[in-house]
Write a structure and sequence with these properties.
Elements lengths: L9 H4 L25 H6 L7 E4 L5 E3 H16 L9 E5 L4 H12 L3 E4 L6 H11 L3 E5 L3 H6 L6 E5 L27 E8 L5 E7 H16 L6 E4 L6 H13 L3 E3 L6 H11 L3 E4 L1 H9 L11 E4 L6 H11 L4 E5 L6 E4 L12 E2 L4 E5 L11 E7 L12 H4 E2 L2 E10 L5 E6 L3 E4 L2 E4 H8 L5 E11 L3 E10 L7 H11 L8 E4 L13 H10 L1
Helix pairs in contact: 3-4, 7-8, 9-10, 10-11
Organism: Streptomyces yokosukanensis
Pfam families: AMP-binding, AMP-binding_C
GO biological process, one term: secondary metabolite biosynthetic process
């Protein structure tokens, strides 16, 4: 490892031991980065300052020069008034706006570590993330500060932006001079992205400055192939690495621009595409299906690239979108552990019903539970390696995700004889609904905090529109009402809305083995028969 610029060495001190890392591969010439690298400076400093960087629904546009000036000002406030030092973790929370992106860039330029979370996450969820990453600073949109304040996180200094007070981030005094980027090492941690495991306890995925550029220099450069005149937009928030790459890193690496939408459902995306002449769209299969139903009357002729990830893309959805728009969706699979997409295909290489082939710079194979490759046509575990790898923050689950130098994504795949990879199913208990990863046990834990709930089991049920929906099998105390609405209302105060069950099934008892182990498969089978 290179000489770190971090004064606060918490992140580097809590990297997995080297023998638990996956094998990292930098075979492409563009992946051979210098020892010293600050990815924010790389993204900001190589584009004509007069070119557009970010657009807003209201019609405002930030040029690269304006973005750089605002990032530098925030970085001055961070390291001056707020006392942030290189290596400190800084939580970022708010809807998808240019200011949130500017805060992210400023944190990295100042040598600190960005921990971007979802604006939907509830107080106890936020408290858990801050405890794991030992977060002591937060930059939060004034409109999203209430739940963060309610989390009552010890030692956390919250600085809001978007308000009109003198203590607001944007109202604090700061030099109007350029901020010299901290001379970070290429392998200094730049961000911690959280993902839930099947236990529901979040895992912090640590990614380096070079990793941020590597996802742009592999998937974006070789598969997406953006142009400087492209306008990007999409639905994933910046708290998801799918959104961070697709809406900030990829357009900036290409000198292109991005339309950042606070609301990005089908009803908002379709008119936004027409109004802003969007050419590159990032969203999940669920959104493509929803947009197909509302496509009439909307001009999407500006689209030239559509990217789908977050859940499996059905061949029928691909064909329907292609028939209606003429655009071939670029399907892909990525993971928070690997930052972005590593298997994909575009243009004439697309095979509907498959995910694609390894992205240049990456390798993939299908193997059995012992780590041996399985023959083409047989299902097994997807294993991946490339320039980015899984490095959990002080988490024993590292040993399960990385085996024999490969990242094991938890997906069951088949490699076809022609080399294309076809998705089969998740290999664990994760529920994937409308592109969101939802850990059933986390929802169960929240349900069990309700005084009337005795037992709970949460599983995914196949759903045509969303891929899966969350179903809660629940046992309540004797005499308590078997009504879903009180439980739904309770959970909405405990969990982000996308995690809340769509359906409640009330049982007298959950199916268990003779030793008391919950038989989740019986609940899944029952749901699939309905």
């Amino acid at each position: 490892m290179y000489r770190s610029a971090h004064v606060d060495t918490f992140a580097r001190d809590h990297l997995p031991p080297p023998d638990e890392w996956p094998e990292l591969r930098f075979e492409l010439p563009e992946l051979r980065y210098p020892d010293r690298l600050n990815c924010a400076a790389e993204l900001l400093d190589h584009t004509d300052p007069a070119r557009p960087a970010f657009h807003t629904p209201g019609g405002a546009t930030w040029t690269y020069g304006e973005l750089r000036a605002r990032v530098d000002r925030i970085a001055h406030v961070l390291t001056g008034d707020l006392g942030v030092v290189p290596g400190n973790r800084v939580l970022l929370r708010g809807p998808t706006t240019p200011w949130l992106a500017a805060c992210w860039l400023a944190v990295l330029k100042a040598g600190a570590i960005a921990v971007t979370v979802l604006a939907q996450q509830r107080p106890h969820e936020l408290a858990t993330l801050c405890e794991i990453a030992l977060v002591r600073h937060a930059l939060c949109d004034i409109r999203a500060v209430d739940d963060l304040a309610k989390a009552d996180i010890p030692g956390l200094r919250i600085t809001t932006y978007g308000g009109d007070g003198a203590d607001d981030l944007l109202g604090r005094p700061a030099p109007g001079t350029p901020y010299p980027a901290v001379d970070t090492a290429a392998d200094d941690v730049a961000l911690i992205a959280f993902t839930s495991g099947t236990t529901g306890h979040p895992k912090g995925c640590m990614h380096f400055h070079r990793d941020v550029l590597a996802i742009a220099d592999t998937f974006s450069r070789h598969v997406l192939r953006p142009r400087a005149d492209d306008v990007f937009t999409g639905s994933p928030p910046l708290g998801f690495t799918f959104g961070l790459g697709g809406l900030v890193v990829f357009p900036m690496r290409a000198g292109a621009s991005s339309l950042l939408l606070e609301q990005a459902g089908a009803r908002q995306l379709l008119p936004a595409i027409a109004e802003h002449r969007v050419s590159v769209l990032f969203t999940a299969p669920t959104a493509y299906r929803a947009m197909l139903e509302q496509l009439d009357g909307h001009d999407v002729s500006s689209l030239r690239r559509c990217v789908s990830a977050g859940e499996n893309l059905p061949a029928a959805t691909w064909r329907a979108w292609h028939e209606r728009t003429g655009v071939r969706i670029i399907n892909g699979i990525g993971a928070t552990e690997l930052l972005h997409i590593f298997v994909s295909a575009a243009d004439d290489a697309v095979r509907p019903g498959t995910t694609g082939v390894p992205v240049p710079g990456w390798q993939a194979r299908v193997q059995d539970t012992h780590g041996a490759p399985v023959p083409d046509g047989e299902p097994g575990l997807l294993a991946v390696r490339g320039p980015v790898g899984c490095r959990y923050l002080a988490d024993p689950r590292q040993r399960g995700y990385v085996r024999g130098g490969w990242n094991i994504t938890g997906d069951t795949y088949v490699r076809e004889p022609d080399g294309y990879f076809r998705y089969v199913a998740r290999a664990d208990d994760m529920i994937i609904s409308a592109g969101y990863n939802i850990a059933g046990p986390e929802v169960e834990d929240a349900l069990l905090r309700h005084p009337d709930v005795v037992e709970a089991a949460v599983v995914g049920r196949a759903d045509e529109a969303r891929g899966q929906v969350v179903v809660a099998y629940t046992v309540v105390r004797e005499g308590a009402p078997r009504e879903p609405e009180p439980l739904r209302a309770f959970l909405k105060a405990e969990l982000a809305p996308y995690k809340c069950p769509r359906e409640f099934v009330f049982l007298d008892a959950l199916p268990r083995t003779a030793t008391g182990k919950l038989q989740r498969f019986r609940l899944r089978d029952e749901g699939d028969r309905q």
